[in-house]
Structure formats: C-alpha cells, structure tokens
Amino acid sequence: MEGSKEWHEAAGVTRLAGVADHVLVVGHPYVDVWQAVRPQRLDLDAWPVVPRGRPWKEGVLAALGWPHSTTTDVALGWRRILGRVTTYTDLEPALLARVEELIDFVTGDGADR
Questions:
Q1: CA–CA separation, 10 vs 39, rounded Å?
Q2: How distant, in Å, are the alpha carbons of 1, 31, 47, 58, 112 from that of 42?
Q3: What is the largest CA-CA distance in the chain?
Q4: pLDDT tens digit sequence for 32-64
Q5: Residue 91 to residue 9: CA distance in whole angstroms
Q6: 85, 91, 108 from 113: Cα distances, Å
Q7: Quick one: DSSP state of residue 110?
Q8: What is the DSSP string of 27-64?
Q9: CA dist 51 to 19, 56, 57, 100, Å?
Q10: How far is it, in rounded angstroms, from Cα 43 to Cα 102?
Q11: d(CA 73, CA 64)
Q12: How far apart are CA 98 and CA 75, in angstroms?
C-alpha cells in the first residue's frame, strides 16, 4: 500500500543507482501471505476479520480457535495452513499473477524494460 513501511523500502531500493533495470518490486493485496491461501482449503468461506491494531496472524489463529500465544503457535499455525495447499489452484489468483510477473522479469531478455 502506498505510504506503508514496505512501500518506502521498495521505493528506496528502486532509486539506487544502476538497480532499476535489475530489480522488480511487486506487491500483493493481502495483509499477510497466509491470506493468499484460499480460505476454502481450511473449510472457511472467508478469512476471519482481524481488528486493526491486532497482529493479523495471531488474530486469525485466535478466531479459528487455534493456539496463538507464542511464536511456536504461529509457526505451527502456518505449517497447518500450508499443509492444506497441494497445488497452485489452492492459492488466490492475485498472488499467482505477481509470481508470474516475477518469473517473466527474471527470465525475460529485458527488451520490454
């Protein structure tokens, strides 16, 4: 999101001398990459809404009734979510589009840059 911490970092990298032709910074519309996993893979209609100001991962885990108090809980939660992903179709198209964009950038000859 424009103006975010991540946006400022990406803008700084692309302003470095000689870097712009060799670096592509893309974003995604998700609060966290977890959100790119289709919620149906976890038998959800949608990801839980986490109130602003609460850490998203911990909020999601709490809403799902999963342990969420420690970094180990969060890591185990991610492992559990990731374990439900078996193919690229388990991911949201917006993330896949960003991955394709990066692949095209890395494998292209630079003619379109």
A1: 29
A2: 27, 18, 9, 16, 40
A3: 51
A4: 889 999 999 999 999 999 998 999 999 999 999
A5: 26
A6: 34, 28, 9
A7: S
A8: --S-SSGGGGB-GGGGT-SSPPP--TTS-HHHHHHHHH
A9: 38, 8, 11, 32
A10: 30
A11: 13
A12: 24
For helices 56-64 and 71-82, give the axis angle rounded to 10 degrees.
70
Torsion of Cα atoms, 63 then 66 then 79 then 35, to 10°: 0
CA pair distance 10, 13, nearest whole angstrom:
5
First-residue to last-residue Cα distance in the chain:
23
Check pLDDT > 70 for residue 109: no
Residue 102 neighbours by CB under 8 Å, 6+ apart: 24, 26
Letter for the amino acid at 113? R
